[in-house]
Design a protein that fits this description.
It is built from 5 helices and 5 strands. The chain is an alpha/beta fold and about 140 residues long. The protein has a single domain, classed as 3-Layer(aba) Sandwich (Rossmann fold). It has a 5-stranded parallel beta sheet, with helices on both faces. Helix 1 (about 20-30) links the parallel strand 1 and strand 2. It starts with a strand and ends with a strand. The relative contact order is 0.22.
């Protein structure tokens, strides 16, 4: 049924993957699907903000994220699951949607976590945006 599953993770927030990862792995095993582990590197939409960072910041950030993501996969994903690591730039929900379209994914498995628990009681804003705009099935794990 599912052939390409996107798992968005925040490498600095275990709540972004602690519950979602086991679900994604189970689905990958059940369907023989490929897993795309996606991390979003925020972009700085205002040139004024971006001017405070060194010229090679983006390159170094991508390299560090890539290395950290690879270590995460080696530690948490069984070798028999075909896994791809992706880093996309943008806001979290835009990056996730961009990655879904880029790989032709048919499912997103993601956690609903947020830091504004009272304001977003039922569903986090990123999960809600992805669910509404991804164009594929989205499994939101609490």
């Amino acid at each position: 049924m599912h052939k390409k599953i996107v798992l968005p993770i925040d490498l600095d927030a275990a709540e972004s993957w602690k519950r979602a990862l086991p679900e994604a792995l189970a689905l990958c095993k059940a369907f023989g699907a490929e897993l795309f582990v996606v991390t979003v590197l925020p972009d700085y939409r205002m040139p004024l903000v971006g001017s405070y960072f060194p010229a090679d910041f983006q390159t170094k950030a991508h390299k560090l994220l890539s290395d950290t993501q690879q270590t995460f996969v080696e530690k948490h994903v069984p070798a028999e699951i075909k896994t791809h690591c992706m880093i996309v730039d943008g806001s979290p929900y835009e990056g996730i949607i961009k990655s879904v379209k880029a790989v032709g994914a048919d499912l997103v498995v993601m956690a609903s976590h947020n830091k504004r628990r009272l304001a977003d009681y039922l569903l986090g804003p990123n999960a809600e945006h992805v669910m509404r705009h991804a164009g594929v099935s989205v499994l939101i794990v609490r």
